[in-house]
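Handout for the seminar on molecular recognition.
Each group receives one record of this type.
Step one: identify the two inputs.
Step two: read the structure output and locate the region that could contact zinc ion.
Step three: write two sentences on what you found, then compare them with the reference statements printed after the record.
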Amino acid sequence: MFNEKLPKIWYGGDYNPEQWDKEVIHEDLRMFKLAGIDVATVNVFSWALIQPSEHVYHFDGLDAIMDNLASKGVSVCLATSTGAHPAWMAREFPDVTRVDSEGRKRKFGGRHNSCPNSPTYRKHVALLAGKIAERYKDHPALLMWHVSNEYGGYCYCENCAAAFRKWLQNRYGSLDKLNKVWYTAFWGHTFYDWEEIVPPNGLSEEWGNRTNFQSISLDYRRFQSESLLECYSLEYDELKKHTPNIPVTTNLMGFYPELNYFEWAKRMDVVSWDNYPSLDTPVSFTAMTHDLMRGLKGGQPFMLMEQTPSQQNWQAYNSLKRPGVMRLWSYQAVAHGADTVLFFQLRRSIGACEKYHGAVIEHVGHEHTRVFRECAELGRELQLLGDGLLDSRLESKAAVLYDWENRWGVELSSGPSVGLKYVDEVHKYYDALYQLNIQTDMIGIEEAFERYDLIIAPVLYMIKPGLADKIEAFVQRGGTFITTFFSGIVDENDIVTTGGYPGKLRPLLGIWSEEIDALYPDMHNQIVMKTEFGPLSGEYSCNVLCDLIHSEGAEVLAEYGSDFYQGMPVLTRNKFGAGEAWYVASSPEASFLQGLLAKICLDKGIKPLLVTPDGVEVTKRTKNDQSYTFLLNHNAAPATIHLPESEVEATDLLTGNILSGAIELAAKGVIILKQQRNE
Ligand code: GLA
Ligand code: ZN
């Protein structure tokens, strides 16, 4: 439980009453009660209001908001406001604004525009967080701290350049070492003085997402992610000084590319994230993102910090969430481990760029709207659920590996193909398990592997020190490991491991990859099965990249069907110790992956949670001797689900009905089955 003060699934969201007339809050509070809203995230963007000049702080406005909320029993997720610096600060202390990737000095404007290595910004965020913590530490409404907002973006200013040089000295010790790991003999880049080093951007090594020197760009990403994390930590430490027991979070953004969230999560008490799928985002992609957010802290429950009750304003086409979809997607988050359901935002802005962003209370200002009714209905349900689900965990035998630095390596790569998208390849494997109803964790490379029976690491391009040994030990003990084309290629500095691909993974996989072919988007090759393997037989299509591999002891289960490498292996399995290591040498169509993973899971005894019709998602959370099976119907039509015969009674948590046999799930409907655990 994040905070025992509120032992239920927290319900509410971002609330910005500083934007409208002071009296409106009373009307809002009336409606919060109608909607079962018990948490408001406030003070996200009020820095300029609180601190009108360098030495002056005004808290009256925030005091009133906090007191009003407390008076009606609404708890507060209190933000520190540092997501947008005040205009006076940018004018008086120009070091706070960033220099962008084209080398342009930014002016005041927008948000998230502060340089993470600005002495002014660092000093003032710590001061402000400390003052807020001191003032509200004993406030009855305080539930949780929310540091800044959606950290992101990089800076390329002189302060960042100087800090980068220090960071490099710390990491590499000497210029000799740096020249080596950056491969500076290429294009005459040898550095003789640390001062010669400049940030990689549009003025130096980079254009768009491309770079001349992967190692330099990779280090700059590590450095900037750490710089922003240091800013977060400055605030974290101030908050903890005053309130050691109030949990601290900052809202993350799923697969956001620029920050290494596994490192961030180490400094967060609770992971929280903002979920904004479009109407056409695959539901399995959202599921995977929830699982990644849960995986950041080893499976601990996380917070759904933001989602829109209805539509966005910043997508190209801001479709309304269809009736029932907000509820369904809220439960999808809970089904994957969220213990909160929070919105952006509770009342709509009437000016600036978010005035057409959905909100619980819309411009009309009363509760007689479809969106409000749906929100109030969900609010009632969450009250009924009480604390039952809190802290329950998902248990998975299968895991998909995801690594931000690996992603940077793959995406910065010049060749072999612009068509290779790391996250898409990860999603293909996740989706196959999802369609099979195999519960899956998304894990980082530091996670304990022995918890799992199956680990899949799509496009594991970068092998950091110790990783190959860790994977070998996992397989040695009986684990099944699957990896793909373009794996084992480089070390942590993007320097190729020589002696044959897939480098350090070669003994484990029992193959040698001699060449890598890139296919144009309309080109395909075929995976031709040599014999049947479970549901797999005949031919499947593949594309993106094709590794031309030779077996060095691995069993060949399928071969390429065409081109000059027809007959070369495309699917191999190598027995290694008590386990096996698979190599999929190209990017297969979905039916192939589903067939392959169905058979591998069957052989390993990894069972689907249930068999359900297409479009019906299932997950299971467990706590003590109870299990909670979530059935989520993403279809626009009702679905029938056949519950397996069981000694154990299944209660529908939302209605109290006892269910068995064939059960009906409404279109966009949700059922949570509560059972005594029988395992
Ligand atoms: C983000 C931000 C919010 C708001 C929403 C709009 O998630 O954190 O402040 O701008 O987007 O969707
Ligand atoms: Zn900077």
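Reference statements: The chain has a mean pLDDT of 97. The longest strand covers residues 539-551.
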